[in-house]
Amino acid sequence: MTKYIISILLLVFYCGLFAQNGSGIVKYSVKLNFTLEDIEKEEKKKGKRLETMRELIAKTRDTEAILKFTSTNAYSSVSKRMQIKERNNGLDLVYSRAGSEKIFYTDLITQTNTIQECKIFEKCFLISQPKLEWKLTQETKLIGGYLCYKAINTSSKNTKQKPIAWYTPQISASFGPKHYFGLPGLILELEETAIVFKVKNITLNPKNEVEIIPKKGTKISEENYKAKQRREFSQFFEN
């Protein structure tokens, strides 16, 4: 009984510490969400060799994403691109889907997420994202010692497979990689159609204050930004 009371007091103490400072740094490994074996199974079903998919696997390398957050704000980005001995030309699917050079900003006060994109055009844009909707389930699993619950992103336009997040209420930070947020706990694993984010390391309330990179760019809605892309690269979209 005494041990139980001590455990409860320690839990309250650590939760209190996090509530006071409410900051952290999370690193995720980002990998393909399918393997060569999956491609081979699909080839057997279709009765033909899927060369494009095989090339994507050959040219893609794992990468790392980082999430930094305070009690109300966060930003997520690809922290580094894994170095490889041979330089491959073409699309690196993991790096691209993980966000490449974009920065994702989350504000819990306004309940918004904004993408900073500076690569496509000659200046930076701040692209506002649609509000996310989640279906919470009671399905659980342990990730790094944390009890996590499964949530499905029902607002995704993907009709074949909705993004799946595994979040832990044990860390009361409503953030995750990329533009995913709004769950009652930190996202430790995120599964999209092509890639999966898996937590590597969590540092809560680090000694050095977590600083959020200032946003810069022209504000624009996602709809208007896509319309701008279609206008500027009409030949690409027509093809």
Mind explaining what this structure looks like?
This protein has one domain. It contains six helices and twelve strands. The protein has helices at residues 2-21, 36-46, 51-59, 93-98, 222-232, 234-238, and strands at 24-32, 63-69, 73-81, 103-107, 112-117, 125-128, 134-143, 146-153, 164-168, 186-191, 195-204, 218-221. A twelve-stranded mixed β-sheet has the order 7-8-9-10-11-1-2-3-4-5-6-12. The radius of gyration is 20 Å and the shape is globular. The chain starts with a helix and ends with a helix.
Summary tags:
single chain, 239 residues, alpha+beta, 12-stranded mixed sheet, 26% helix, disordered N terminus
User: CA-to-CA gap between the ends?
Assistant: 70 Å
Structural Rg: 20 Å
Taking the sheet with the most strands, its summary is:
12 strands, mixed
Low-confidence stretches: 1-21, 83-88
- Number-wise, the strands total 12
Number of helices: 6
Average predicted local confidence, pLDDT: 83
Which range does the strand content fall in? Answer: 25-35%
- Order of SSEs: HEHHEEHEEEEEEEEEHH
Looking at how many chains there are and whether they match, the oligomeric state comes to: single chain
Short characterization:
The chain has 239 residues and is of the alpha+beta class.
List the helices and strands and how they pair.
Layout: H1 2-21, E1 24-32, H2 36-46, H3 51-59, E2 63-69, E3 73-81, H4 93-98, E4 103-107, E5 112-117, E6 125-128, E7 134-143, E8 146-153, E9 164-168, E10 186-191, E11 195-204, E12 218-221, H5 222-232, H6 234-238
Parallel strand pairs: 6-12
Antiparallel strand pairs: 1-2, 1-11, 2-3, 3-4, 4-5, 5-6, 7-8, 8-9, 9-10, 10-11
